[in-house]
């Protein structure tokens, strides 16, 4: 009896929380369906939903090109940053070596620094090497920043994996590479997929870097398209919301796709743990 | 070498390196400076890039003109690229200093964007072209002054010409015709007192007298500056915006205007949610009938006309003394400048001239520009807000009555003044405090307070 | 030891190289620029530490830093608490639909800051959803234009941070709980422990590492926040929601004061770094 109440309470709590999460997102959808220029208030489904707003937003924001750009950047940044992060995290999390602590703290700087200011010197640095105005100039800083986070993330994961697992494999004469691939990575699946989701989300949503480093509007990334709905002193609210949803959908899809793997990986982890 | 000498040598080296490589670059003369300007166009194929932040109809007008120009001159291609205003300012300086700088660019206005660009020698002075094409006959002197800078980029409002604008913008009073009829209010107002009477009447009838969406903080500043334009002599205001010696914000006119705004807020004349409502939502509320008046700019006109269909009008903020000339906050749109790095300054100037020629005024007007060069650019729809707006615009332009924007005064003026206006409306600061904060910023930045 | 060191360095080298070239070098460049009076384009002039003293003396900058302390509560403390509750509820009851709840609650982490900003601007508007809900439960008296209220705008924005960060904490803790030895839970249940005691006796101690990670990430998010303020209030009303990240943005991009912006950026980096260092030290019993 008691247990059933608890269950009910748990469900109620979760449902309320999920609702609180979804409500603001739902309100964007309702606004995206308003006629252009119409006043917007509260949460109400429009009488005459303008699904055409999405088509309009797609062309106005030239999202076709922008999303392609975002894809190109993400497809390079995510795997490269993930591989590099797993490697650094593995070293920091499982090996003892001279200078490991200071080195780790240095790498932390990448996640603590606000780059609203650093983007200006970064631009000038990259310009010296002719790296502005092309994708590589955006990918490399994104990878650098991601690796900083990834190192922190993967190190924490490797630290919490039972040391006996690694020791046993080493006893059997496995080299560090084999330990990483055969023993640790299968257990690390959830951590790695979550990391990939986050990398993808950040790369996809990155705006300031892409704006400053890619001067040519034709190669900018998806969030830049939202600027097309915001003028100097006016905003096309319906268009902006529709555009915002267009930008968001691919990320959510990637997330959902990776999510299945996260769960599968997690069950594996649970069995092993 | 001992350790100390080595250290000293090292430090000296570091100091030398550091001082030798201060960031940025000293201005350089354009490679072909001094070469005679010409209206003759080259015969080889030329492609010019044009960066701008003109959204919607105005941006389309530019594209149309670029296409039309190419029809007339098949070897010349003008490639306009749009970047949203909020983002444009973030990278225009970097962009103009790079090798891939656009040939023609909107360089913003005043100190924030245009000043540093002039100072860095990245914009080409246009006075020779102005002579060549007769721009000073085409535009009122006050309009051209808004794009003038001294060569060192420090003095604004006089000096060399660095850009030509396509249109203008203006702040005034939008009103809801139905509500005015119900309340028995007639426009135009003969003086400010008449407008204040109308506000009191609206309040007494349970209406929201003035709709304002001030979440972004700049919209409220336009109400203040439109009041200042009435109370403060135009010349004083312009001197202050242009940063001329001896000008001050702490003057009787500005004090009166600021007090008036504070009183309006205190009397409940301004929507109590103003600070929490975005400009766009504020316009939305006005369209829905919340608010008898809305003090706002020409940029919101098309949305209002499209959604209120003849039920909205526009009139000027009335002068303090009946019969005085019409004054309003307003300016040209951001002028187009020519990059000092362009290989084809003649072509760039030719296109800028083309855009502002009388035969293209209609295209600009249809795009939503308030005409700066040509009086008879087109006819607004009768009974629309546009009708009142164009009429007001012509009145103001007739004797150079534009008061410009207060945040032009210094690069950080917007970030100082706008939050202070939010505080003033909420009763969190007094008019005197606002004025002294603002003047302090001005004195700091202009260095001659 | 030596050989092991070499192997470790080899693993670190590629990642560190990219990081050093594209993060560290520009950051050093930033620190160097902070010693100049520079507008980002024309020739700068050396000012030594003037930018620092000037910014530290600026009351607006100091208020901005104090606002990030408020954000610490909303971005870090609350989400960690909620994340713990959510994770333990989800794992204890082995509820059906775990995947669904997980996905939904993590969602805010996935959407762009712009989207978050637009959504919440409407939620908080005077005729927005929050006020609709309040009046539905008879609390009309509390309704206001939240983001324009000098008292409530900051906590209102803070709650958006809670909304965004809770999902991340939950996912983190769920993964951690799944690694806790199941026999520990069984033992606790045999002892007749209720959910609360089970939580404190088994779950919490087992999540030390995840707590450290969660606390670090949320703290950084709180102190570094910029996007949210940028897309909602722009620091207003007045300066009521201004934060250091936004101050940097204003200086660098709106006022053309790149030198000053760099100085604030360096100070903020040092502050966050110190806080993060403290967190790792405090939670590092095991290392």
UniProtKB/TrEMBL annotation, chain A:
One Gene Ontology CC term in the entry: plasma membrane
Gene Ontology biological process: transmembrane transport
Location of the ABC transmembrane type-1 domain: 67-258
InterPro entries given in the database record: MetI-like, MetI-like_sf
Membrane topology: Multi-pass membrane protein
Main subcellular location: membrane
Keywords for this protein: Cell membrane, Membrane, Transmembrane, Transmembrane helix, Transport
Pfam families in the record: BPD_transp_1
Keyword Zinc included in the entry's annotation: no
Subcellular location: Cell membrane
Transmembrane segments: 66-91, 103-124, 136-158, 179-204, 237-258
Family, per entry: Belongs to the binding-protein-dependent transport system permease family.
Protein name (Swiss-Prot/TrEMBL): Carbohydrate ABC transporter permease
Species this chain originates from: Nonomuraea turkmeniaca
Taxonomy of the source species: Bacteria, Bacillati, Actinomycetota, Actinomycetes, Streptosporangiales
Automatic annotation (TrEMBL), chain B:
SUPFAM superfamilies: Periplasmic binding protein-like II (SSF53850)
Ranges in a coiled coil: none
Name of the protein this chain belongs to: Extracellular solute-binding protein
UniProt KW Signal keyword: yes
InterPro entries for the chain: Bact_solute-bd_prot1, SBP
Signal peptide limits: 1-22
Domain of life: Bacteria
Record bears the keyword Signal: yes
Keywords: Signal
Pfam families: SBP_bac_1
From TrEMBL, chain C:
TM region positions: 7-28, 69-91, 103-123, 152-175, 257-279
Pfam family, one: BPD_transp_1
InterPro entries for this protein: ABC_transporter_permease, MetI-like, MetI-like_sf
Topology with respect to the bilayer: Multi-pass membrane protein
Entries under CDD domains matching the protein: TM_PBP2
Gene Ontology terms describing biological process: transmembrane transport
Family: Belongs to the binding-protein-dependent transport system permease family.
Identification of the protein by name: Sugar ABC transporter permease
